Amino acid sequence: MKKLKQIPRTLATLIFSVLIISLGFGAFTVNAVTPAQDEEVPSYVDNVKAYPGDGEIRLTWDASTDNVGVTGYKIYMGLSSVSQVGQSYDLGSVNVANVLEYTVSDLDNGTAYYFAITALDAVGNESVDYSYEVSATPEASVDENKGNPVVVSAKALDCETVLVTFSEPVKYPIESTNEAFKIEDIDTVQYIKVIEVSYAKGDQSGLNLTTEKMQEKSQYLMTVGSDVEDKYGNAIVSGTSDTAVFSGTACEEPTDPVVDEEHDLIAPHLKTVNVTDSTNLEVAFDETVVLPEPEVAADDDGDKPIIDPALALFKITDNNGVELEILTVDYKDTGEVDADNNPVFDKTTLVLKIAEQKSETQYKLAVTGLEDEVGNATDGQGFSSVMTYVTPQFKTDEPPVETPDTVAPEDVTNLVADVVDMLVNLDWKASLNSAGDLVSQMLYVKTSDGTYDQGQKLEDSAIDYTYKGGVEGQTYTFKVTTVDDSGNESEGTVVTATLPTTGAGIGLLALASILGGGLIGRNKK
After folding, report:
1. How far is CA 24 from CA 18, 397, 421, 471, 505, in A?
2. Are 115 and 129 members of one domain?
3. Tens of pLDDT along 8-31?
4. Residue 258: CB partners within 8 Å, gap ≥ 6?
5. Residue 451 parent element (H or E)
6. d(CA 211, CA 374)
7. What is the pLDDT of residue 301?
8. Among 42-51, 432-441, 509-518, where is mean pLDDT lowest?
9. 342-377 confidence digits (pLDDT tens)
10. Residue 518 is assigned to a structural domain of this protein
11. Residues 315, 383: one domain?
């Protein structure tokens, strides 16, 4: 489908013409043209997700923003990933209305499809960058979307753990768990804080809530928020099976929430990505993960370099699809030692040494093939193994590189010329001076058949000027420009004015006007 053509907005043109005829005064014309055109593009489309079905894939995304308003979206798709500048999606694109989901149909089951989305405004401006790419494979056996998930039950496993069971597998917000789950003591009407959430082993339809200490035999009301969704993006509906009542249990006889490992079918869940500095990340999971052992490979020279297969499990890309090199992957050192004086490592958190990241830049981390202790591996596509993060402003010992200033201050506006006798009074509205570097203004003058003079320097705060010494009957063009401390000068704002013609001719004309037009009336008869 062709890209929408950019349609210029209507140019608002305002023309003033004033003709003054009186004794000792002349005529002048002032013209001002004000164009207006929307050239700002919509923002980047974020949080794109793909849900496969039978011969179709449903896409969802967050709303983009625009200075005037987003009117639609463009969905690009192909049979291969687009990761380099200049590449394009081989299946083209389709424009959709201003919606936040769209189902692409007539697809081949078993074939992987890749998607990226941009936003459009009313004049055809399009987001500069693609969204992050998503991929899905339609399958005939994909479970049907059965609607919104509901809470089936809640049970206290011990005085600090609650097992919540849902009607289907769900996903939950990593960073706002205390907002997504509310536990209220029915008798005291006091809330119990939810400290941590994790999947119950063996089934993503169960969640273990780690809480503050609860009282034995007290009745609690557990409420789940709309941030909890199923894999289709259907959210828990408030007031519709989003609550469950359970009784507190004793701390002395806790029930282990972990099911036997032989029933564990769930891959590690990516919880957080912490940027420690420009070349190091801490990546945390909801359970212990197992790094593959390094391998030894002989080269042609007989050397035996060490190959770390863990490096291939992680992929980090920026907004342009540029991939960062992974240098090392290790477990996080806790700083403690065991009884044999060996360092103790946190095997739920990995430290990635990577190529240098840019400051204040969004990156995407995908983890593929990383296993837990029973062999469940991440897929590198679902919400549990892909996460975006934004780097902070990194400190640097190098002095900042100064970019030459090539932009002049904004022009003055509302330039008006007022002719009084043989004087031209100019006044205008000061420049916006958004950069704060305006140091002076220049006034240039030319006649209708000449060129601009060398100009006269004005103070940076000047908003008016009186031009003297003009010739009667002559038309003059005045131009006011702005100058910054780097010498950049604006194009300028222009106005024209015509000085009056004095003498018998204009005097008689004015006198005739004063006498009611009698002389001219008689000649006409």
Report:
1. 16, 71, 7, 14, 11
2. yes
3. 333 333 333 333 333 444 444 444
4. 201
5. none
6. 27
7. 59
8. 509-518
9. 899 999 999 999 999 998 888 999 999 899 888 888
10. no
11. yes
HSE (side-chain half, CA atoms, 13 Å) at 128: 6
Joined tokens for residue 51:
């849900």
Query: CA-based diameter of the chain, in Å?
Result: 126
Q: Which of 129, 123, 109 is nearest to 46 (CA)?
A: 129
Which carries the bigger pLDDT value, residue 253 or residue 308?
308
In a domain, 283, yes or no: yes
What is the residue range of 77's domain?
Answer: 49-136
Closest-CA residue to 107 (of 141, 139, 61, 133)? 139
Cα–Cα distance measured from residue 390 to residue 362, given in angstroms and rounded to the nearest whole number: 4
Q: Residues 462, 483: contact at Cβ < 8 Å?
A: no
Mean pLDDT of 306-325: 87
CB 487 within 8 A of CB 458: no
Q: What is the CATH number of the domain that holds 369?
A: 2.60.40.1220
Model-level pTM?
Answer: 0.35
Which residues make beta-bridge pairs with 369? none
Please tell me what DSSP assigns to residue 228.
-
Tokens, residue 447: 């006649």
> Using DSSP, how many helices (H) and how many strands (E) does the chain show?
3, 38
